[in-house]
Amino acid sequence: MSMVISAAGTILIRNNEVLLVHRPRYDDWSFPKGKVDGAELLPLTAIRECDEETGFLAVLGPNLGIDRYGTSQGDKEVHYWRANVREDLGFAPDEEVDKVAWIPVDQAPEHLTYAQDLEFLQRAIELPPTSPLIILRHAKAVNRSNFAGKDDSDRPLSGRGRRQSKIITEALEGYGIEHIITSPMRRCQETVKKHVKQLSTTATLVDAISEWGYEQKPEDLDPAVELAMKNPAPSVLCSHRPVLDAILDTVARLGGISKVERKTGIWSTKLAPGSFVVVHRAFDLDDPVNPVKIVAAEHHEVPGNQEI
Asked: Hey, what long-range contacts does 210-214 have (CB within 8 A, 24 or more apart)?
């Protein structure tokens, strides 16, 4: 059985142009991409490789699927994201990429070396503009049995949870999250604390998505989630395992996902601590009945839950 090499890349679009890279080793033009570094999350691989190869920091949009092909080292799987430019740090040519070029989308077929790249570019340009909503389970907390405090709402993150929160912060930044909504419980607030600090903002604390709030008043959950779902700002909802199924069901329903679809795949996922689902929403604010539609969704497991 051949080894599978995991990689990730971006299709970076700006002003109806797409960014291509030239690799002197292969004398080809393609998209910035590269192999996963250790246990790195795939979306973070895509962002890092884009930065290293082109000097552009990317903000990720929807996942575009997987390009599979054989290499001398084994079968390769490249996960692509549509992306926008967050910052230009400056291109520095090296032995891997010696040239980059912004090419008008309609001229890309004349420049891209591989036919399958055109398929992914076509998927990227056919998607409407989107804004992400991340549904996040708080990072790994101190076990209830080991917590000496009187109030479970004060239970903090564990050491592994704090490490997870660093990865989560990178992911929230990578998706351009601007609005932080969290359960008031300490473990949730600590999970998003670094991103709140980076944005120089304050988190919105919502009792309805806390364990206690959901137990006491489950009817308050839907209105709270609907408010987040219909807000076009890139947002995150940080909550707890007992509440996540209801949150995901409400998000899916509001985004036009059928009852049948909500019973399978991402929508039936049991999120591990620190892991999250990203839904990419397209908005039609002129439609008072269905102003938001989910056009893509993805699930990411953050390392750090295994006992050492």
From this structure: 210/153, 210/183, 210/184, 210/185, 210/239, 210/240, 210/243, 211/152, 211/183, 211/185, 211/240, 211/242, 211/243, 212/153, 212/185, 213/183, 214/242, 214/243, 214/246
